[in-house]
Design brief:
It contains five helices and no strands. It is mostly helical and about 140 residues long.
């Protein structure tokens, strides 16, 4: 059990690093419009509709990739047939994304794509784990 909890922690940490790297690259390529006060939630909310599609795609990619890589790391560290450490990491990424989408308004298409992408990435990694571990569905 202790190893599984450590696995969730390791997976969550890796997921956060993936998000920071990919979103950082996206913000470098697609910065917020000049003059936006990043400490003011209303100013950020007003700037969101002005962002190009590429900015949203980087955020989406960061969350989906974080769910997949974080779940994979959790499963590798856990080393057993249990899939719950990978699922837990995917849930943590989904909770973080949901909070972000509640605080910062996002387009409707993005919300749907983010939820579907995070869930699909997590399930794809954990389903693969089940097949590799020899457990049948």
């Amino acid at each position: 059990m202790g190893r599984s909890l450590l696995a969730v922690l390791a997976g969550a940490l890796v997921a956060m690093v993936v998000i920071m790297i990919v979103e950082g690259l996206g913000m470098w390529l697609y910065p917020l419009p000049a003059g936006v006060d990043t400490t003011d939630p209303a100013a950020i909310a007003a700037a969101i509709p002005l962002l190009p599609l590429g900015a949203f795609l980087f955020v989406l990619a960061s969350w989906v990739l974080a769910a997949a890589v974080g779940a994979l790391v959790a499963l590798r560290v856990a080393r057993g047939p249990a899939r719950w450490p990978g699922l837990a990491v995917g849930c943590l990424v989904l909770l973080g994304a949901a909070y972000n989408m509640m605080v910062i308004p996002h387009p409707t298409w993005f919300v749907g794509a983010a939820v579907a992408g995070i869930v699909a990435a997590t399930l794809a990694v954990t389903a693969r784990r089940r097949l590799v571990a020899g457990n049948t569905p």
